[in-house]
Amino acid sequence: MANYPYQTQGFTLNNSGRRVVVDPITRIEGHLRIEVNVDENNVIRNAVSTGTMWRGLEVILKGRDPRDAWAFVERICGVCTGVHALSCVRAVEDALGIVIPRNANIIRNLMLSTLYAQDHLVHFYHLHALDWVDVVSALSADPRRTSQLQQSISSWRNSSPGYFRDVQNRLKKFVESGQLGIFANAYWGHPAYRLPPEVNLIAVTHYLEALDFQTKIIKIHTIFGGKNPHPNWLVGGVPSPINLDGAGAVGAVNEFYLNLVRDICEETIEFIEQVYIPDLIAIAGFYKDWGFGGGISSQNLMSYGEYPIDPGAHTNDNLLVPSGVIVNGNLNEVQDVDLKDPEQIQEWVSHSWYKYADETKGLHPFDGVTEPNFVLGGNTKGTRTDIQEVDESAKYSWVKAPRWRGLPMEVGPLARYVVAYARGNEEIKDQVDGLLGRLGLPITALFSTLGRTAARGLEAQWSARKMKHFYNELIANIKAGDMATANTEKWEPSTWAKECKGAGPCEAPRGALAHYIKIKDTRIDGYQAVVPTTWNASPRDPQGQIGAYEAALLNTPMADPSQPLEILRTIHSFDPCLACATHVLNDKGEELVKVKVC
Amino acid sequence: MSETYYELFRRQGISRRSFLQFCSLTAASLGLSEVGAQEIAQALQTKERVPVIWLHGLECTCCTEAFIRSSHPLAKDVVLSMISLDYDDTIMAAAGHQAEEHLERTIEKYKGRYILAVEGNASVADDGVYCIPNGKPFIEKLRHVAKDCHAVISWGSCAAWGCVQAAKPNPSGAEPVHKSLRGLGKTIIKVPGCPPIPEVMTAIITFMITYERLPQLDLQGRPKMFYSQRIHDKCYRRPHFDAGQFAEKFDDDGARMGYCLYKLGCKGPTTYNACSTVRWNDGLSFPIQSGHGCIGCSEDNFWDKGSFYEHLPTILPPGWGGIESTADKVGLTAAAVTGAAIAAHAAASVVKQARSKSSNDKLATKE
Amino acid sequence: MEIEKYSGRVLPGPIENIYVYQAPVRLWHWITVIMMLPLAVTGYLIGAPPPAIYVGGEATFIYVFAWIRIIHFSCAMIFTIAFLMRLYWAIVGNHHSRDIFLPPVWSLNWWKGLWDQAMYYLFLKKEAPSWVGHNPLAQIAMFAMFVLGSVVIIVTGFALYAQQWAWGDGWMALFGWAHVALDEPQAVRTLHHLMMWYLLLFSMVHIYMVFREDIMGKESVIGTMVDGIRMFKAKEH
After folding, report:
1. How close, in Å, is residue B279 to chain A by CA atoms?
2. Chains touching chain C at 3 or more Cβ pairs under 8 angstroms?
3. What is the distance between the terminal CA atoms of chain B, rounded to a whole angstrom?
4. Within a domain: residue C173?
5. Would A529 be classed as within a structural domain?
6. Are A287 and A132 in contact (CB under 8 A)?
7. Which run of H or of E encompasses B259?
8. Tens digit of each residue's pLDDT (9 = 90 or more) over B264-319
9. Closest chain C residue by Cα to residue B225
10. Structural domain contains residue C108
11. Does residue A154 lie in a domain region?
């Protein structure tokens, strides 16, 4: 890697200015540290993203029953709960050659779209909104005007002046108590907040409403998976049997539960279309000239595609959301992605706390090696157990650096939307064009912090509609007489091949996810997961190429570097999930080496 | 003067009558008498909110996600009206320096009075470098905050037992919170489960702030009110267990009729939790009800107790007959070997006796 | 008749019949035999339940598995009480009643007897010595397999039974330590199950041996457990 200042991917990195450290980054999943250098105008000229946790889940999986693996990997993350389990059962089914029943495919699609709707909603209001919304300012809003505003943007029922006054009073009492709890010591009054008090009050009100409502959406997981977080999955299908009118129907998915599913779908559509989307548009309207945070989104985007229409193949002719890779911002040519091609997806560790025999090369997940190797660069400030500033010229993160044909990629709702847009998916195109039209923005406006947030909102809406679609599909399939939910032909290990391997792709709410499994003598011989946040939070690679987080922070002006609101805004727009990004495996199951400081 | 719950209820337009009704419902759900309801009502009308510091170590955030799924009370009301959640990386507005500053202030201001809630656990291998929020090993932060706390709540199986990262071979050296806090003499309430049931989490909090005491704990440090009976003891499929009616395979007739999942590896009979009574997500269902056996997620080290789909753990290493070799295989093999040995020995005995007889006969003839 | 100290070997000399097994010992033996059979069968079925006998019936009124379990628990209780009584009798009974609980490993004679008996069973020695109580080999087998096996199966069994109480309450207060000692309830379950096979192996060998001894040996064996009297067969020639 070159010395500063140096150029990569069209950005100039310069570490000469003041160093600002933000750790912990809050309102994310897991532990993330961001360090930036700002120039004399407080513009970010260098950015460093460090994942600060590692659990080694794949090491733990070695030698276990592949049918059990979903439960282990599901615990990679409790926020995007279920996606790792889904990837896992898909990988096992791919390895063993199992085709799941139609109902199981629909139910899995329904569970995933439910998670999208719930997770995006929680992200927008509870993890991201406070980057745009000033809670304290909401105290000075006029409830009557707030009510008028609310009624002008949506037909949502909770819109009376009295309702907003109650919320505001509750908030006032809360603030007056002096016990500010989760809102304490934040950035209220920061010049980067631009919303008028009334919009702030609407947003805070919906922060509370959404917190209540999300408990409802997720009940679909409880019906089919028994609980949430961490519902149950099954290799070969789904664990919930269907019994509509036979003996013991109350012991299975039945008319009662299906009615509940239908109601939840309806209410989710209603909430997202009447609350989330109008709020998103209202807030975006005030920030639309804050076009920072694009990073590499205008260059490289990737999606594995999602929602198999029929059970089986994860290929574009069988997917509702297409897969593909966009390189150098060329929307006219979407390239195909192949998870199993050793030349396409590779992971590097030159700047990650792991060890390869040859760190100038990347490894495909099927050949992946991971050995923790916690060493700090010579320019690190602080000590091994008290790091003040990391040295990004050496190893500096528990996150590996995945690359597609050597290129860093951004993944997530924005990537999915742009890939689908470029592939000509009508439904998504209509949504995007509609939103951009309303805000009067060109398509390039998508390549920004706000673009990411907007794509997530649109996707939540799309997902809510698809929940209903999948529910209808399920009913139609049951009506046609199909009750099967699990294929147990290959349940017994004696029916398995002696050695096999498989890959399980999944578009998680946060982006492209793939699990890789190798099975030998009925046990797991190797396991790898390349997850969305590994792509986005990626550290540098041997060429010095920066990852999506790092790129997105560059050239953003900060109003006050000691109050890192702009950093939070952009990082949150990715919806980071660090527990996902930093688990990792030791494919060979070797003894983990002791770490040293150099 | 800070707002009491009662004032809050009143402000939200809830009548005193409804408020008292809420209190008696809460009391009933906690198994308390009418006196208990009055105590709750009294407590909610007068208390200042209890400060809570919620730390995250090696974890997956499923506990926080569970917490915000609580329906009774809603997480919103817990956070705004019952406790003062002064630090929680996952939902707090402040970050970085501001977050850490507020943490220190809270510790200082509420010395000995705040509750420390821990989600996840600390890594102790290699100086704890596998979890270094703010550049320092998490165990330092954990012990620092624990030092002056009133009591510790270990949320979930990570904090209570170690959970998935502590499963063999535990590469990051993750250890449960009670081990990390050795020597501090703090009371630790374990609320295991991966994650715990949402309403169990909030009920433990409301209990503590209402009665100003810790709930009764069992020998393992878990609240007796939720962890003193097995899922099996209160499972609605128990009659099928007693009747000997089992699902043999997923999606078979038995499964569709809601038969007992014991033969599909259900760990309900060895798992102490309230899933079969409180149930999940507003009492809607729980794993067994949805058709999948319990995986025992609230038990210590449930990851290393054999397959989730086998009733008995696999005790042979792989290669010794594969995954389905269990105690029975060992037993049968041993019995077969013993049987063969007995048969051989008996045959040898017969031969020997015959020989000695014939030699006796020979002697007799000679005589 | 002269008998060697500790080992119980019958020394050369005149022979007579001896009252060896007192009534409580015999009673315990047969109670245990009677209990072990249903315990093994029901125990096995608890571990590997049979397919439903009544499909579609009203579960509330069918107790197949409940019966299997109650039989198991009841027999286990009787088995345990009989074992405890036997322990008591080992203290107050005649010295034969201590045989299987306390093999006299400190006695050289006993070790010699063990050697002789083993050689005899391996067909390396023509004649086995005569014994009043159990022969040393039988003694050590009884101790290691039956006594220890029973203790383990009783403790693990009650530990599993105790799971219907909270940690620290009821039977769990008495047997919860077994879960702690073995780290986890599933290990307790596995050990309990393995012990069933262990006792089964013992029973196979035991039954074979008593029949063999009864036919080929010099003393009465089966009859002794009925009337308590050991008869020494006269030499055939």
Report:
1. 8
2. B
3. 120
4. yes
5. yes
6. yes
7. none
8. 999 998 899 999 999 999 999 999 999 999 999 999 989 988 889 987 766 655 44
9. C166
10. no
11. no
3-state secondary structure A62-127: CCCCCCCHHHHHHCCCCCCCCHHHHHHHHHHHHHHCCCCCHHHHHHHHHHHHHHHHHHHHHHHHHH
Task: State the CATH number of the domain containing residue A512.
Answer: 1.10.645.10
CA distance A530 to A506: 11
Q: Is B312 within 8 Å of C190 when comparing Cβ atoms?
A: yes
Q: In whole angstroms, what is the distance from residue C1 CA to residue C17 CA?
A: 9
Determine phi and psi for A527, rounding to 5 degrees: -140, 140
Alpha helices in chain B (DSSP H): 5-11, 16-29, 34-46, 62-68, 75-77, 96-109, 138-147, 156-160, 177-180, 198-211, 224-227, 238-243, 253-256, 287-290, 327-366
pLDDT band at residue C165 using 50, 70 and 90 as cut-offs: confident
Torsion angle, CA of A351/A353/A354/A355, rounded to 10 degrees? 70
The CA-atom distances, in angstroms, between B29 and each of A306, A472, B40, C165 are 42, 37, 12, 21
Distance from CA of B256 to the nearest CA of A (A): 5
Question: Of C49, C164, C165, which is closest to B263 when you measure between CB atoms?
Answer: C49
Q: C interface mutation test: which of B229, B237, B245 has the most C CBs within 10 A?
A: B245
Is A595–B129 a contact, with Cβ atoms under 8 angstroms apart? yes
Provide the residue range defining the domain that includes A462.
6-131+213-581
End-to-end CA distance of chain A: 18
Indicate the pLDDT class of residue C236, thresholds 50, 70 and 90: very low
Q: Which residues in B174-187 are b (16+ Cβ under 10 Å) and which e?
A: bbbbbebbeeeebe
* List of chain C residues whose C-beta atoms are within 8 Å of the C-beta of residue B239: 59-60
Q: What tokens were used for C2?
A: 């002269």
What's the rounded Cα separation, in Å, for the pair C219 and C130?
A: 7
- Amino acid A586: pLDDT: 36
Shortest Cα distance, chain C CAs vs residue B274, angstroms? 12
Residue of B67, B131, B256, B302 to mutate for A, most A C-beta atoms under 10 A: B256
From C228's Cα to the closest Cα of chain B, the distance in A is 26
CB contact under 8 A, B254 and C189: no
Measured in residues, chain C has a length of 237
B/C interface, count of CB pairs below 8 Å: 147
Cβ-defined contact of C185 to B270 (cutoff 8 Å): yes
Report the Cα–Cα distance between both ends of chain C, in Å, rounded: 20
ipTM above 0.90, yes or no: yes
Residue C180 parent element (H or E): helix C170-181
- Which among C164, C184, C212 is the nearest to B349, CB-wise? C212
Residue B117 three-state SS: strand
C119/C99 Cα distance (integer angstroms): 21
Q: Rounded to an integer, what distance in angstroms lies between the CA atom of residue B78 and that of residue A221?
A: 24
pLDDT tens readout for residues A561-595: 999 999 999 999 999 988 777 654 433 333 333 33
CB contact under 8 A, A372 and B171: yes
> Does residue A270 register a pLDDT over 60?
yes
Binary contact (B259, A251; C-beta < 8 A): yes
As for how many domains chain C has, the answer is 1
Question: pLDDT tens digits for A321-365?
Answer: 999 999 999 999 999 999 999 999 999 999 999 999 999 999 999
Asked whether residue A91 is domain-assigned, the answer is yes
pTM reported for the whole predicted model: 0.87
**Residue A190 domain-assigned (yes or no):** no
Quote the CA–CA distance of B71 and B57 in Å, as a whole number.
Answer: 26
H-assigned helices in A247-369: 255-271, 277-287
Asked whether the beta carbons of A187 and A81 are under 8 A apart, the reply is no
**By CB neighbour count within 10 A (0-12 exposed, 13-18 middle, 19+ buried), where does B343 fall?**
exposed
What number of other Cβ atoms are within 10 A of residue B98's Cβ? 20
Task: Look up the CATH number of the domain holding residue C195.
Answer: 1.20.950.20
